[in-house]
Each structure stands twice: as structure tokens, then as C-alpha cells.
Design goal:
This protein is of the alpha/beta class. It contains six helices and nine strands. A hairpin with a 3-residue loop joins strand 1 and strand 2. The longest helix is centred in the middle third of the chain and has 14 residues. The protein is globular. The relative contact order is 0.13. The mean pLDDT is 94. The protein binds S-adenosyl-L-homocysteine. S-adenosyl-L-homocysteine binds next to strand 2, helix 4 and strand 4.
Amino acid sequence: MNGSHIKGSGMTSQRTRERMIERLGDKGIRDLRVLQAIRSVPRHCFLDEALSHRAYEDVSLPIAFNQTISQPYIVARMTELLCTALDGNAKILEIGTGCGYQTAVLAQLFRHIYSIERIGELLQRTQERLNTLKIMNVTTKCADGRYGWVQHGPFDGVIITAAAPIFPDWLLKQLAPEGVVILPEGEKTQNLCVYKRKGGELLRAELEPVNFVPLLEGVQR
Ligand code: SAH
């Protein structure tokens, strides 16, 4: 999947893409599966043409509907946390599909990704993009992801890509034994947190400060 058949891709040389992978390595991303997944997903295809020349900078960038595409380092970091805890057979729930970049990276590494986005039109464009990139192991729906996706649970991994003020307790019902949850927790100040279910216990670790858009109520058609 190099996205060369998609508009705007002429501006992004293989060299530019490789430099981003090197930078992720410098920032501490060690898992070669994650680096390979990031290498294989053409980030420029997830941006408007006017910004696609910046696709391989390690920064978050604006997309439609006042949303953002996540910074590659954060995508890599959250993906690495899931990869450390789970194998490729895992079923993942993602909340906050956005442009689908994180979704596409996860789809390289795990059996199936269920992804929820609250902005209908944004999701429609994302679904078209995933189809164009021939990413088939993703199922999306437009809904308020704060309630998860009961029909497809339990999930081995849950990743929330919008900030939740507190740990959403529905997750416990939809999380497999030994399941893991990665989320930005907090409001004005947020921290990347990992929860792991071990037997009857839920272990929490707080990792590093992050800056995500908030998890909002309801759906925008
Ligand atoms: N994962 C994306 C970034 C997502 S930005 C990437 O790879 O770039 C956060 C997304 O979460 C936005 O698209 C926002 O609309 C969505 N969102 C916010 N609250 C939500 C909710 N309650 N349910 C589902 N999606 C939500």
C-alpha cells in the first residue's frame, strides 16, 4: 500500500517517508512491527491536498470538520502499547476514527478493527479512503463511542483517540479478560494511560502528557 495511485502523492518521496520512521526510532519507538506498519501506510492520503506536502512531518495537522490527524509519534506510541500486550489475532475497538490514519495503522497489525466516529460526513469520507486503500479488516459506524460497541465485544484492545475526563466504566463489560485499554485521560491536562485487566483487577499506568480533542456527546450527521 504506497498510495501512489492517490492524488498528491508525487510530493512525498520515499526518502521523506523514511526520515519520519527514523525520527520515530529516535523518539523511542522500538517495535519493528509498528515501524513497518507506519512505513506502509501513506499518511499523505489522509490529508487534504493543500497539506499533503507536510504529511511526513511528525506533527498533528488539521483535517475537515475542525478535527485533526494525530501526530505520527502518538499513533506509533499507542499502537506499540497495544502490540506489546496483544498478538495479531486480537480484536480491537477504536473510538474516534477521524480521518482513519490510526485505524489504517492498526489494521496492518491486528485481525479486525471496529471503529466508531461521531461525525457522519467525516466517517463517510474516511470509509471511502479505507476502501481506496483496500483496507478490508475494518468495520466502522457513526455513533457516540462513549458507549462502546456491545454487539462486537468483548474486545482484546480498546484505543480511544479523543480525551476522556475519566475512565469510562462501560469498558469493563466490553473488555476481554487480559484486555488492554489505551486512552488520553483528563481535560485541560491529559495523560496517556494504559489499563490492563488481570484476573479481577484493573491495573493502571500513567505514561506521558498528551493533547487530544475531547470525547464529545452525541452524533453529528
Ligand atoms: N484517530 C485519528 C484522530 C482522531 S481525532 C487519527 O488517526 O488521526 C478524534 C476523533 O474523535 C474526532 O474525529 C472526533 O469527531 C471523534 N470523537 C469525539 N468524540 C467522540 C465520541 N463520543 N464518539 C466517537 N467519536 C468521537
